[in-house]
Amino acid sequence: MQIKKFTAGTLKEAISLMKEELGENALVLSTKVIDDDDKRFELTAGVEDDGENYEEKPRAKKVVKEQTDFENELKKLTTKIYGQQEKKPPVNIEVNKKKINQYFNAEKTTVNNEIKELLIQREIDEPIIETILNQLKKHKEFVKEDVIDNYIISTIESMIPTSSFQYDKKKKPKIISLVGPTGVGKTTCIAKLAVISKILHNLDIGLISIDTYRLGALDQLKILAEVSNIDFLVAYEPSDMPKLMAKFRKKDIVFIDTVGRSQKNASLLKGINDFLSAVSVDEIYLVQSATTTLKTMVDIAEKFKVIKYDGIIFTKIDEAVAYGNILNVVHKFNVPIKYLTNGQVIPDDIIAADSEFISKMIYSGNFDQ
Ligand SMILES: Nc1nc2c(ncn2[C@@H]2O[C@H](COP(=O)(O)OP(=O)(O)O)[C@@H](O)[C@H]2O)c(=O)[nH]1
Ligand SMILES: [Mg+2]
């Protein structure tokens, strides 16, 4: 996807500039007001490259496969973003190899401490570190020194449940909702998923925003929906939900965006639940920022249980400096990870959850592997 910014006095002007330059197929990915006094709009737009891969994209055909596997497409997108990532040597681990080698020789305790120190730095919880070290001890005859990193990575990998997004054309619409505290990136994530579903999969998308504060839902999602030609509706009361879903009955996927709620206020959380229970939501994802402390993450995962969530999305991995909390939380709550998000760009900055990728990210402390 080719991405470009346009600035103009009105959104309409910016859109016509975009169409002039990028053509009718261009999509608006995000908008913002850049100068409050002078009111200038900046619009980020994208258009599919007409490079050699153009013809291969599912968009070329108006046929939706029986089972559309979003993960594959997202992985392709990831490869596109990170280029040659799979060809690079596995992970740049900062462990002192010499010391690790000693693990198999004399100074076991020191080396054990060395590995332990690294895992602590990665913010992995102590009991989980113990499990990893015990595994290592148990199998030390089989684990050759040159594969010790890979052994730890596989051990971590086995502790990370992930689950892929399945779309079944026969059962429509599929209803997905994102819940979580304010500012973690729910709306941005829905925008990414909606744009990818629309442009890569040719799916008919509906967006519902739950606006209990009656703010008029003048959020980014509404603007994105308008300019990307995605139908958008707002629910003010739980009883609105069945009516809105009736309007969207022919859609392939309906995403429900919720307003952020502090997990500390149980009645507010129940309020969201009332909206979601009014229709049969297929999947609910809890959105957490990877930059949050473990204590807060655990509290969020615990309190949001009122809304029965099926998976977790970890956002802002581009801002986090350690990823151990991802392991700590999914291990404790045994919930699969659905997606990771790694930036603000719609729709590019999203990665389908893959336990090997996540495990390497946690161990290396680096998502851009
Ligand atoms: N760096 C970074 N910022 C993000 C990411 N996801 C969302 N954001 C930003 O976080 C802020 C809040 O996002 P928003 O979607 O409005 O959060 P919501 O309140 O949960 O709906 C916005 O400025 C987003 O651009 C991400 O993966 N990385
Ligand atoms: Mg929001």
Describe this structure in a few short sentences.
By secondary structure, this protein is an alpha/beta fold. It has helices at residues 11-22, 70-82, 97-102, 108-121, 126-138, 148-157, 186-201, 220-227, 240-247, 266-277, 294-303, 324-333, 355-364; strands at residues 2-8, 27-35, 40-47, 67-69, 166-168, 174-179, 205-210, 231-235, 253-257, 283-289, 311-315, 337-341, 350-352.
Q: What is the count of distinct domains?
A: 3
Low-confidence stretches: 51-66, 81-92
The CATH class of the largest domain: Alpha Beta
Q: List how many beta strands DSSP finds.
A: 13
Tally of alpha and pi helices: 13
CATH superfamily of the largest domain: P-loop containing nucleotide triphosphate hydrolases
- Taking strands numbered 1, 2, ... along the chain, how are they ordered across the largest sheet? 8-7-9-6-10-11-12-13
H/E order of the elements?
A: EHEEEHHHHHEEHEHEHEHEHEHEEH
Please report which band the strand proportion falls in: under 5%, 5-15%, 15-25%, 25-35%, 35-45% or over 45%.
15-25%
CATH fold field value of the largest domain: Rossmann fold
* Form type: globular
**Alpha carbon gap, first and last residue:** 22 Å
Q: Give the ligands present.
A: guanosine-5'-diphosphate, magnesium ion
Question: Under the CATH scheme, which architecture of the largest domain would be assigned?
Answer: 3-Layer(aba) Sandwich
Task: Tell me, rounded to a whole number, the average pLDDT.
Answer: 82
Largest sheet: 8 strands, mixed
| Class based on secondary structure composition and strand pairing | alpha/beta
Helix content: 25-40%
Structural Rg: 23 Å
